[in-house]
């Protein structure tokens, strides 16, 4: 009876994933899942976790609402994984309290700015094969990046070959604006669209005028073919 009573007294939220170790750090729960060959984020992480280490695994994606139930989470380490995709709502539910987010040393080429800009956490994004574009530039400008790792955010690919291999911050300091390039592309597309609509209107007007002219000519010819009133009088 004492055994079953003990089981009933243990809160379900305090269970620990089989591949992880749950400990207390300064009175706060730490969940340590480092180097456990994990391919996805464990589903049964305790709700009262404050520190979560998932580094050095084989995680490839952070799905939407992956940490939504971890309202107490302050530090999240996802470094040294194989992360390629991060969903827009990946960190929904933890944005307010998260203080540190480490995504360094993954395979991230691009990231939806919506996934990071809502966070107040200090971000580590170094050592990823980044594609330098407007979204990454906006993250660099608006997010709270760890100053010690900013120089290691390097352009793995870019719209122009001369930017490849250079730190993104260095490229931006040189006056490059990836967002203006996208804006020019958008402007050209809008101009082409508007020109297309204008051309269609012109063609329609020309066809309409020609059609009316033909109808007028036919009507005039018809009137000419009718016997004149003078002829009937004679």
TrEMBL record:
It comes from the Eukaryota. One of its GO terms (cellular component) is plasma membrane. It is found in: Membrane. The chain crosses the membrane at residues 188-209. Residues 1-22 form the signal peptide. It is a single-pass membrane protein. Residues 15-51 form the LRRNT domain. PROSITE patterns: LRR. Keywords: Leucine-rich repeat, Membrane, Repeat, Signal, Transmembrane, Transmembrane helix. The keyword Repeat applies. Pfam families: LRR_1 (PF00560), LRR_8 (PF13855), LRRNT (PF01462). The keyword Signal applies. InterPro entries: Leu-rich_rpt (IPR001611), Leu-rich_rpt_typical-subtyp (IPR003591), LRR_dom_sf (IPR032675), LRR_TM_domain-containing (IPR050541), LRRNT (IPR000372). Belongs to the LRRC3 family. This is Leucine-rich repeat-containing protein 3. It comes from Eudyptes sclateri. The gene is Lrrc3.
């Amino acid at each position: 009876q004492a055994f079953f009573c003990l089981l009933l007294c243990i809160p379900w939220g305090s269970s620990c994933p089989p591949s992880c170790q749950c400990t207390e750090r300064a009175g706060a729960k730490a969940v340590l899942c480092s180097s456990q060959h994990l391919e996805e984020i464990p589903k049964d992480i305790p709700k009262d976790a404050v520190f979560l280490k998932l580094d050095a695994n084989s995680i490839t994606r952070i799905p939407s609402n992956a940490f939504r139930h971890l309202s107490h989470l302050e530090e999240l380490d996802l470094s040294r994984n194989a992360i390629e995709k991060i969903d827009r709502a990946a960190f929904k539910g933890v944005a307010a309290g998260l203080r540190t987010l480490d995504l360094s040393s993954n395979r991230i080429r691009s990231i939806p700015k919506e996934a990071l800009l809502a966070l107040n956490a200090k971000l580590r994004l170094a050592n990823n094969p980044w594609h330098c574009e407007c979204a990454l530039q906006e993250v660099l400008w608006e997010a709270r990046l760890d100053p010690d790792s900013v120089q290691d955010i390097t352009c793995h690919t870019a719209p122009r070959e001369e930017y490849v291999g250079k730190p993104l911050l260095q490229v931006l300091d040189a006056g490059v604006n990836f967002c203006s390039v996208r804006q020019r592309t958008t402007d050209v597309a809008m101009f082409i669209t508007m020109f297309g609509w204008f051309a269609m209107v012109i063609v329609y007007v020309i066809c309409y005028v020609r059609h009316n002219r033909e109808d007028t000519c036919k009507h005039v010819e018809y009137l000419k073919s009718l016997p004149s009133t003078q002829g009937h009088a004679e």
